[in-house]
Design brief:
With 82 residues, the chain is mainly α. The chain has four helices and no strands. It has one domain. The radius of gyration is 13 Å and the shape is flat.
Length: 82
């Protein structure tokens, strides 16, 4: 397990491949998608949204690096209401 300080150098900045891989693993294997399914009835992270204005997007999308992973993590959350 990496210490928290591993990601604290430049929180919104782009990551190297090792950082990106770690972030992708946490996103897909942390259990959050299953918790969202229990809470809302559908798997998916409701916070992961893409705005038409790039400046409003979470820096997480740029740091993750894969649009396909973003879509998988988002899942069916657009059908659920918060």
């Amino acid at each position: 397990m990496k210490p928290v300080t591993f990601l604290q150098h430049h929180p919104a900045g782009p990551r190297n491949d090792a950082h990106r891989t770690l972030l992708q693993e946490v996103l897909m294997k942390s259990g959050n998608l299953e918790i969202q399914r229990c809470n809302t009835g559908v798997k998916g992270n409701k916070v992961l949204k893409k705005s038409k204005l790039p400046c409003l997007n979470l820096p997480l999308s740029r740091r993750m690096g894969l649009d396909a992973l973003w879509s998988r993590a988002k899942g069916l959350s657009h059908f659920a209401e918060s």
